[in-house]
């Protein structure tokens, strides 16, 4: 690798171009202010690797904002067989240790605003995006009672003593309205939006970025856990998650234990209950002991869960990493210098941050185009 620039360094360079960016239109179409010189780059070939929520979000942003480029998306698996399909998809976040908080805040805000537009539109049921109100509860009072995203969700407040009475083992809680995004509907909706923007989709396994070097001018890596192999990134590791979908239409409010391991998320067609967060665990089979534990733990928060009929069980491997990797580099691939933009490693926060990091990835692609030799632009 001969050149690397991470997204935090690019922040300052992008501020000038994004500060005056027009407001996102309905459904957050990725229309950005034109940049001199880019419109002459017709025929530049961009490929996005990965068809999860991060991959499709990134592909849509690029295809809509850079219509003069030929944008393709490659993946071995598509919905309903991606890790994103099993995600609970509720929007709130944890802090990553080495990324400026303002950047994390922007990622969250851009994603929340994008999905809120959809939730408040006629596309809500088709896209699987809805408003969701409920409680996050803690057995001990957290050091930070107001997380960085508290002003970005709707109606965030501390729970009253009366509200906490139903959770006798918990001392503190937060009440707010956020968004639930069900990827089993959202991914096919994004797929169609990508096609409408002129994107091309191919189902194939990418074993190495080397094999893409001659066919594309810019590579965008959104392969999640696959980046362990594709990018040679040993920081990426599996975080095993197991959930159940149950039939419980009487449940209307989410409940999440602050440790993130026990939660109840009502959705459009079912209720997701979970879960597990097992670092370094590659098992993809359903563990019946863990399924029983999930029902018991969720039943302690909401006793009626024990009466709910189990519709399905799911296991997935989240792409864990100390921090998401959102950066660009110039890679030497088969004797050719090829710009590569990375956007992966979101862990259990893929749905929460996907649109925000996709916009950052778009900015990095635009920087790649600016630095591209003239012969590649023709």
Automatic annotation (TrEMBL):
EC number(s) given by UniProt: 1.4.3.1
Residue ranges of domain FAD dependent oxidoreductase in the record: 45-358
Subcellular location as annotated: Peroxisome matrix
Keyword line: FAD, Flavoprotein, Oxidoreductase, Peroxisome
GO MF terms held by the record: D-aspartate oxidase activity; FAD binding
Gene Ontology terms: biological process: D-amino acid catabolic process; L-aspartate catabolic process
UniProt KW Oxidoreductase keyword: yes
A Pfam entry, by short name: DAO
Catalytic activity: D-glutamate + O2 + H2O = 2-oxoglutarate + H2O2 + NH4(+); D-aspartate + O2 + H2O = oxaloacetate + H2O2 + NH4(+)
Record PROSITE patterns: DAO
Names of required cofactors: FAD
Primary location class: other
Signal peptide: none
Binding site for FAD: 83-84, 206, 347-352
Enzyme class: oxidoreductase
CC terms in the record's Gene Ontology section: peroxisomal matrix
Residues where D-dopa binds: 263, 318, 348
Superkingdom to which the source organism belongs: Eukaryota
Function: Selectively catalyzes the oxidative deamination of acidic amino acids. Suppresses the level of D-aspartate in the brain, an amino acid that can act as an agonist for glutamate receptors. Protects the organism from the toxicity of D-amino acids. May also function in the intestine.
Family: Belongs to the DAMOX/DASOX family.
Protein's name according to its UniProt entry: D-aspartate oxidase
Taxon lineage: Eukaryota, Metazoa, Chordata, Craniata, Vertebrata
């Amino acid at each position: 690798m001969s050149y690397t620039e991470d997204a935090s360094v690019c922040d300052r360079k992008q501020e000038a171009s994004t500060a005056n960016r027009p407001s996102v239109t309905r459904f957050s179409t990725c229309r950005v202010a034109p940049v001199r010189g880019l419109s002459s780059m017709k025929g530049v070939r961009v490929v996005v690797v990965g068809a999860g929520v991060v991959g499709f979000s990134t592909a849509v942003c690029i295809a809509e904002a850079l219509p003069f480029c030929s944008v393709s998306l490659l993946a071995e698996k598509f919905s309903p067989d991606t890790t994103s399909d099993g995600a609970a998809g509720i929007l709130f976040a944890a802090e990553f240790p080495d990324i400026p908080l303002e950047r994390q805040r922007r990622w969250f805000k851009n994603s929340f605003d994008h999905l809120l537009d959809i939730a408040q539109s006629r596309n809500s049921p088709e896209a699987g995006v809805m408003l969701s109100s409920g409680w996050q509860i803690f057995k001990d009072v957290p050091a930070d009672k107001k997380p960085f995203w508290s002003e970005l969700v709707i109606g965030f407040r501390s729970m009253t003593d009366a509200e906490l009475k139903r959770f006798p083992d918990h001392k503190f809680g937060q009440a707010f309205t956020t968004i639930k995004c069900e990827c089993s509907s959202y991914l096919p909706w994004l797929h169609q939006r990508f096609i409408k923007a002129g994107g091309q989709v191919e189902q194939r396994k990418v074993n190495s970025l080397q094999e893409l070097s001659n066919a594309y001018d810019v590579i965008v890596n959104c392969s999640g856990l696959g980046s362990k192999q594709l990018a040679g990134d040993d920081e990426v590791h599996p975080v095993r998650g197991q959930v159940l979908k149950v039939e419980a239409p009487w449940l209307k409010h989410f409940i999440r234990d602050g440790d993130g391991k026990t939660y109840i998320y009502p959705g459009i067609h079912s209720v997701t209950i979970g879960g597990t967060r097992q670092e370094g665990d590659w098992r993809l089979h359903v563990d019946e002991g863990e399924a029983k534990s999930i029902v018991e733990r969720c039943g302690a928060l909401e006793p009626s869960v024990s009466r709910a009929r189990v519709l399905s069980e799911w296991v997935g491997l989240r792409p864990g990493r100390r921090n998401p990797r959102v950066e660009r580099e110039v890679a030497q691939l088969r004797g050719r210098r090829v710009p590569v933009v990375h956007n992966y490693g979101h862990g259990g926060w893929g749905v929460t941050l996907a649109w925000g990091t996709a916009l950052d990835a778009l900015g990095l692609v635009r920087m790649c185009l600016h630095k591209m030799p003239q012969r590649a632009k023709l």
